[in-house]
TrEMBL record, chains A, B:
Source taxonomy: Bacteria, Pseudomonadati, Pseudomonadota, Betaproteobacteria, Burkholderiales
Residue ranges occupied by any ABM domain in the UniProt entry: 10-80
SUPFAM superfamilies xref list: Dimeric alpha+beta barrel (SSF54909)
Source organism of this protein record: Herbaspirillum seropedicae (strain SmR1)
Protein name, entry field: Enzyme of extracellular polysaccharide biosynthesis protein
InterPro entries per UniProt: ABM_dom, Dimeric_a/b-barrel, Jasmonate_Hydroxylase-like
PANTHER family: ABM DOMAIN-CONTAINING PROTEIN (PTHR37811:SF2), BLL5343 PROTEIN (PTHR37811)
């Protein structure tokens, strides 16, 4: 996984922070399918994720409308439901406007 | 680490995504000291972090002024310099306004 190349400001970020339940229950496969499906959505700019105790997934989008459309996607809605029923002990979703960014690279 | 209890909207998030260099070079100790120092800053609301290939640390703040003051903190400036010189292959910092949030908890 790489740092997302999100392009020009302004753009939007969805910070999804979660605590998992025990066991997989199909989570790994669904998580991969959801990243794949999100990346085909109009307005998708990139995604970054990592998990230790806490999981953090940040997806980047060109507009609030693009985020709303992805939230309504039927396969995504099913994953959201399974998330509440099986995969997550707790989560928080934060919708953000990225106002500034700066980058460093050794290359 | 828990999901940050960030309180009422609006508030701000700093998404710091990084790729590390090989070896520790004092990183672990400094990272802990910086979280400790940040948490004593006015306007600090919480922090969430995880690292796999990619490291993601999201800190939450009450205002852009609070973020700017933390960026100028002298110990933090030294850590930023060491980050560019030693610890990070690449990083991206994104300053965001959190416009909406929603939470789920099984408890």
């Amino acid at each position: 996984m790489r740092i997302a190349a999100t392009g020009d400001l302004p753009y939007y970020a969805v910070i999804f922070t979660s605590l998992r339940t025990e066991g997989d229950h199909g989570y790994g496969q669904m998580a991969e399918a959801m990243v794949e499906a999100a990346s085909r959505q109009p307005g998708f700019l990139g995604v970054e994720s990592a998990r230790e105790e806490l999981g953090i997934t940040v997806s980047y989008w060109s507009s609030l409308e693009a985020i709303a459309a992805w939230k309504r996607d039927l396969d995504h809605q099913m994953a959201q439901r399974l998330g509440r029923e099986q995969w997550y002990q707790a989560y928080k979703t934060r919708i953000c406007k990225v106002e500034r960014d700066y980058a460093f690279s050794r290359d």
